Amino acid sequence: MQLQEEQKQSKNCITSLFSRARTYELSILLASALAAGGVWIFVEIADEVFEGETRRLDEAILLSLRNPADLADPIGPSWFEETMRDFTALGGTVILVALCLAVLGYLLLQKKRGMALFMAASVIGGIILSSTLKSFFDRPRPDIVPHSTYVMSASFPSGHSMLSAVVFLTLGGLLARYIKTRRLKIYVLTLSVLATFIVGCSRIYLGVHWPTDVLAGWTAGASWALLCLTGALLLQRRGRVETDLKE
């Protein structure tokens, strides 16, 4: 009886390992496919933008968000405009770096050095990619409405939109990997997507980005986050990144 029980436990263990391996493979395949699709969409947007095909739509959306009698005045009450400035700050470099440093400190205190190093590399890589794309495309900022907040860099893709996608989606995706309850997974991922969406919309509302800048930023940032998630899955399989957050 004891031998049969041991054989049964061994069989269950092997079945569990095969099931886990299949789940990893499917997750890696899906994340890779979505990332490739995101890159393709970004290339298509860039091509349309620099052929001038999106200019009319971009202008129409920006103008629809302004008072026709005074283009310096965004539609809505003054408190809403101030709220949009608060939301746009969530995608600023200082706030995102502070958030990443806080998470990095937590991971190091948890002695999850592999995960901490991977997260830092993912975010730094996203920042470098965003700066490189901006310098390469060098699209001017919108000039048909006054800007409601200060800007310094080029317009395409939106840095706030891209970096918020990189940080929020990467952190949300990695955190969801360590949550067992499906409801909590959905909650974390929904918050990540919502934060990314709000930051991008605030950039359009404040008149500092063309809508296609934001769409391209979301696409590029989400693609990078998916590539990072794929990398995390591969490194977890090899034991170089921790697979849980427990002590």
Q: Short summary of the structure?
A:
With 247 residues, this protein is mostly helical. The protein is built from eight helices and two strands, in the order ααββαααααα.
Could you characterize what this model shows?
This protein has helices at residues 2-50, 55-64, 78-89, 93-109, 113-137, 159-176, 182-205, 211-237; strands at residues 66-67, 70-74. Residues 6-21 have low confidence and may be disordered. It has eight helices and two strands. It has one domain (12-237). The chain is mostly helical. Helix 1 (2-50) packs antiparallel against helix 8 (211-237). It is 74% helix and 3% strand.
- Quote the distance from N terminus to C terminus: 36 Å
Overall geometric form: globular
> H/E series, N to C?
HHEEHHHHHH
What order do the strands of the largest sheet run in, or round the barrel if closed?
Answer: 1-2
Low-confidence stretches: 6-21
Fraction of residues in helices?
over 70%
| Number of domains as seen in the coordinates | 1
Average pLDDT metric: 81
Name some characteristics of this structure.
about 5% strand, mainly alpha, 8 helices, 2 strands, globular, about 250 residues, single chain, two-stranded antiparallel ribbon
